[in-house]
Amino acid sequence: MNDSPLLNKPVGQTLRTMAIPAAFGMLMTFMFQLVDTYFIGMLGVDQLAAMSFSFPVYILIVSFFMGTAAGVSSTVGRALGANNPPKAQRLVGVAMTSFMIITVVIGMLGLYVDNGLFSLLGAKQEALFYVKQYMTPLFLGMFLLVGGLIANSALMAKGIMIPSTAVMVLGGIVNVVFDYLLIFGHGPFPTLGLQGAAVATVLSWLTILVLMTALLYRAELLSFSFLGNLKQASEDFSQIMLISTPAIAAQVLNPIAIAVITRSVSQYGDNAVAAFGIVSRIESLALVGILALSVILTPFIAQNVGAKANHRVNQSIAISGRITVYWGIGVFLMLALFSAYIFNPFSQNPTLTTIGQNYFYIVGLTYPAFGLALITSSIFNGAQLPKRSMAITMVKSIILTIPMVLFAAQFSLESIWIGIALANILGALYARKQLIQWQKQSGDSTPNSMIVKDYINDFGQLRWY
């Protein structure tokens, strides 16, 4: 009998016990990134703008491997759900080895094409100096990040959340400490400025990888036995890529859209680019609950699909949908009411603050829609239907966001924000259509009346508090 808590504990309780540590880990990571942004902001607007230009490329590479992590989480989760631990161990070993090697190659390529790449994003010659300072250490150390991402996804597939969260928090602390020491040069440490922030990030990645690997061995989730059977390793890699390839494509589409947005925003000056970089960090922090839920849904769905527990899959879809809507509404209200105070620590420039406020007023209203599309994509990854997941991201990013932003950029900066908001709403509607089709094909469709009843019951319970 499979005694996995992902298969046996109540669905709501399981999602909470997985999502809360994941959210805390993400929260700490984003907090440390905001500290990063705060320190860089002390260097000046030029350095902030350089970080913003770097962000789409950095996110593109990270998203590529987040797609592989989703594939690893899904395949490892399904193997564990089918009660096949040796296969799960092999899959983790193959994934970590293969993708870390691939990342080294990508990093070298990034160093070779960096000037042309960032020029395409709108970086002027004076900005390229700072961009290269920031990205060179990140390109060189990116393989450490990827190893940590793969390890974390494997631990999550087994429901191991608190130890991996502690590792992420420790990595964040390492980042902040070395930010302070290397950006400004304290004690024996040199003053590296913007480059110091990047070096601190790489040191945190190294810390995370070493500790995550130790956790994998402790959980009996890592084996390099595939090195003695390369044919089996090739088959395992093919299985991972069968799920990962569409997931990678889906993940990569979002940074492409961000790159287009950044390019469009750059028409309105460095202040606009710097403000967009700051709101992106604040937004990631504020939406941490939804992001955490989307991450843990993939292994939860994968294990339950592997165990053929369809009733638990349906319960998780209903519960996660309501959590997403409530979180999105709460974040919008918080940012709409307090955006000026939230923005102020990162820049005292009133122009940047006004741009940020307008973004939150317009785009923030559609956070529930953004979240629903995101978790639906994760549900499909867990069900090993990555093509449906990719379709959602492709429609939202390529068919909706990019054309709307490019058109809106001809009018005003606020029009760009309206284009993003419309893409969020239409993307959520498309995701809902995909989910309903899949549920009907599975014979598990939930009537709209039941969904409405769930919301009414939730609000009815609130009256007693």
UniProtKB/TrEMBL annotation:
It holds the Pfam family MatE. It is a multi-pass membrane protein. It comes from the Bacteria. It is found in: Cell inner membrane. This is Multidrug resistance protein NorM. The keyword 4Fe-4S does not apply. Keywords: Antiport, Cell membrane, Ion transport, Membrane, Transmembrane, Transmembrane helix, Transport. The chain crosses the membrane at residues 20-45, 57-80, 92-113, 133-155, 167-185, 197-219, 240-262, 282-302, 323-343, 359-380, 392-409, 415-431.
